[in-house]
């Protein structure tokens, strides 16, 4: 793969990932879903006079906790750092 890529492409991908990480679709979808659900629940609780309790993003991601996410991010960054030394 490295023989086929121009010299700066891997560096560009590395820098782009640091700015805008890709993948992790569950997390992105959970943020969108919890935002919409919390807006609907806030409006409904305002009309009914009930107490509003927001839905946490982690409730919508079936397999991830904050610690696991941090570990995965650190492992991905370490792998990218190791690749730049090639």
Can you tell me about this structure?
By secondary structure, the chain is an all-alpha fold. It has a domain at 28-69. Helix content is 63%, strand content 0%. It has three helices and no strands. It is elongated, with a radius of gyration of 19 Å.
Brief synopsis:
By secondary structure, the protein is an all-alpha fold.
Strand residues, percent: under 5%
Question: Roughly what is the average pLDDT, rounded to an integer?
Answer: 77
Shape: elongated
Give the tally of β-strands.
0
* Sheet with most strands: none
Structural class: mainly alpha
Task: Determine the N-to-C terminus distance.
Answer: 12 Å
Low-confidence stretches: none
The SSE order reads HHH
Keywords summarizing the entry:
mainly alpha, 3 helices, single chain, 86 residues
Task: Summarize the topology.
Layout: H1 9-19, H2 25-48, H3 66-84
